[in-house]
Write a structure and sequence with these properties.
34 residues, mainly alpha, rod-shaped
Length: 34
Amino acid sequence: MIQKANVTEIFTETNLQEIGEIYYKIVIKWCFSK
């Protein structure tokens, strides 16, 4: 359980960073497209 929890935390942190970068790019593209 502890190992799974640690892996989940790392996976979540990585996902948030990747999603943040993708969201940031989408917002910039959307702003320029207007």
